[in-house]
């Protein structure tokens, strides 16, 4: 039976199977994460406070007003911000442990179990929120975040084992761009499901949670942690991966070199850039549906489609820019370091400009949606830029590096929804303009740090031989110190 399966699967390059399933993992992770962002607009009661019209509040129209009934939960804007940010309270905690677990036990089950726990939490969300209200929902979202926090560190470990450097931009972008597809599908499909389902907002949690469970079952059967462990990978592909990746990827590695990581300027540049990207991206992912509903007054179905449109364009650009990045690097037009800097800058500066333009377009819905879409499309260049940079710096410790970078960056997900809730109590254009100014400043300043200090080269602390030599030198110095303290110098013999 095994030989029959192997002969059947041999023509299929298994690194592509891993990449496709990794892509679907990220898609599922984001649909389960963000479906609440649209559902919450239908879960809460309509705000009854009066806001004086001063040109900063967009009027409703027949084409934009919602036809669905409002929900039953009386949650203020600030409480909604806490609910939406609570996922990230758990999410940031498990990034570093997730990377360490994936490096120690492999990425397959670290990712799989984390995704399964998130799917189960998503499935029970309607039951939990109706039983315990906002408090229970916040606790459940924290638990969801704990499960999903291992996603990117575990994927980074898998990609370090399966993706050669010459294909890193393409396959890495393909996997990580699942975030855009997940956001697009989560927003677009949620609007349709809620609009047409007799159970309303509850349907999105049952639907996306069920898809997550199905993905876990397929992942368990189809994918393996390394080419060495895969029973169906061809000898040709295994040899190719061994020859192209063996220089910087090792089966046995020393403990994580924390001292060198803390002192690494390229790593700090990556962390700072990740904070900037996540600040802009998470603000849009979490709160764009609220802007479409509360400011521009789109209906729930239109809200879903229009909130999804920017991420469709971002996904398309991420793929196109990844192929361009690999071509520029492989033809020596740009070094790997400069390619990462150029594409990261495109993904920071141009979105910042477009978001500011949208904030000054006021209630012109066409211009606002167009600028949102163009700005988020440019953000797709982030994937062949800084997103795959952790693989450049350290294939051996890629899970730990990704855990540090993504974990610290995800702190933005805690802060931004709460800030938006505080700054936009009345959902006016002027209030949101302040939000977009903050995004602009954060994106520009963090990009400067990346351009100055980033690197595209494998760092010296990735080399196990260097680390083992360093450990040996430390042991020798310690032993020499003990000998100097513990031994009495011999007395000189008298001269004759």
Radius of gyration: 25 Å
Largest sheet: none
How would you spell out the order of helices and strands? HHHHHHHHHHHHHHHHHHHHHH
Contiguous uncertain segments of 5+ residues: 48-54, 63-69
Helix content: over 70%
Distance between the termini: 88 Å
Question: Can you describe this structure?
Answer:
The chain is built from 22 helices and no strands. It has helices at residues 2-9, 14-43, 77-91, 95-105, 107-123, 125-148, 151-162, 168-176, 178-196, 202-222, 235-245, 258-262, 265-294, 300-330, 336-359, 365-378, 383-387, 389-393, 398-409, 411-423, 429-453, 464-486. It is globular and about 75 Å long. It starts with a helix and ends in a 10-residue tail after the last helix.
Short description:
This protein has helices spanning 2-9, 14-43, 77-91, 95-105, 107-123, 125-148, 151-162, 168-176, 178-196, 202-222, 235-245, 258-262, 265-294, 300-330, 336-359, 365-378, 383-387, 389-393, 398-409, 411-423, 429-453, 464-486. With 496 residues, the protein is an all-alpha fold.
């Amino acid at each position: 039976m095994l030989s029959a399966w192997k002969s059947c699967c041999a023509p299929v390059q298994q690194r592509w199977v891993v990449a496709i399933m990794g892509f679907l993992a990220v898609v599922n992770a984001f649909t389960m994460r963000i479906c609440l962002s649209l559902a919450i607009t239908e879960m809460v009661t309509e705000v009854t406070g009066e806001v004086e019209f001063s040109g900063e509040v967009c009027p409703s129209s027949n084409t934009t007003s919602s036809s669905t009934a409002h929900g039953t939960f009386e949650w203020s804007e600030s409480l909604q911000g806490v609910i939406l940010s609570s996922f990230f309270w758990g999410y940031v905690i498990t990034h570093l442990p997730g990377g360490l677990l994936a490096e120690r036990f492999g990425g397959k089950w670290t990712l799989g179990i984390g995704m399964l726990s998130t799917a189960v939490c998503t499935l029970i969300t309607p039951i939990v929120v109706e039983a315990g209200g906002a408090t229970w929902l916040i606790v459940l979202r924290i638990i969801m975040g704990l499960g999903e926090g291992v996603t990117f560190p575990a994927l980074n470990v898998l990609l370090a084992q399966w993706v050669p450097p010459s294909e890193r931009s393409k396959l890495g972008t393909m996997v990580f761009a699942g975030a855009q597809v997940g956001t697009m599908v989560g927003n677009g499909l949620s609007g349709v499901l809620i609009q047409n389902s007799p159970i309303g907002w509850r349907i999105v949690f049952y639907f996306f949670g069920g898809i997550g469970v199905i993905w876990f079952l397929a992942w368990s059967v189809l994918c393996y942690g390394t080419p060495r462990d895969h029973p169906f990978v061809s000898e040709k592909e295994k040899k190719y991966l061994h020859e192209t990746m063996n220089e910087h990827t090792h089966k046995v590695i020393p403990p994580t070199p924390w001292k060198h990581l803390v002192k690494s300027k390229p790593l700090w540049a990556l962390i700072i850039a990740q904070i900037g990207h996540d600040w802009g991206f998470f603000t849009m992912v979490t709160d764009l549906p609220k802007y479409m509903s509360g400011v521009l007054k789109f209906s729930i179905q239109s809200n879903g489609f229009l909130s999804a449109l920017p991420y469709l364009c971002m996904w398309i650009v991420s793929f196109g820019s990844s192929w361009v990045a690999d071509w520029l690097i492989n033809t020596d037009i740009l070094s790997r370091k400069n390619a990462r800097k150029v594409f990261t800058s495109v993904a920071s500066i141009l979105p910042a400009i477009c978001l500011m333009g949208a904030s000054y377009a006021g209630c012109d819905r066409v211009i606002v949606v167009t600028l949102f879409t163009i700005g988020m499309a440019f953000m797709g260049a982030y994937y062949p830029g800084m997103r795959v940079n952790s693989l450049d710096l350290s294939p051996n410790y890629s899970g730990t590096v990704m855990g540090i970078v993504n974990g610290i960056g995800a702190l933005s997900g805690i802060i931004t929804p709460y800030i938006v809730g505080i700054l936009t109590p009345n959902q006016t254009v002027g209030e949101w303009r302040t939000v977009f100014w903050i995004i602009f400043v954060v994106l520009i300043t963090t990009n400067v740090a990346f351009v100055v200090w980033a690197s595209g080269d494998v760092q010296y602390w990735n080399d196990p031989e260097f680390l083992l030599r360093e450990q040996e030198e430390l042991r020798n110095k310690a032993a020499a110190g003990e000998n100097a303290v513990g031994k009495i110098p011999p007395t000189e013999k008298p001269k004759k």
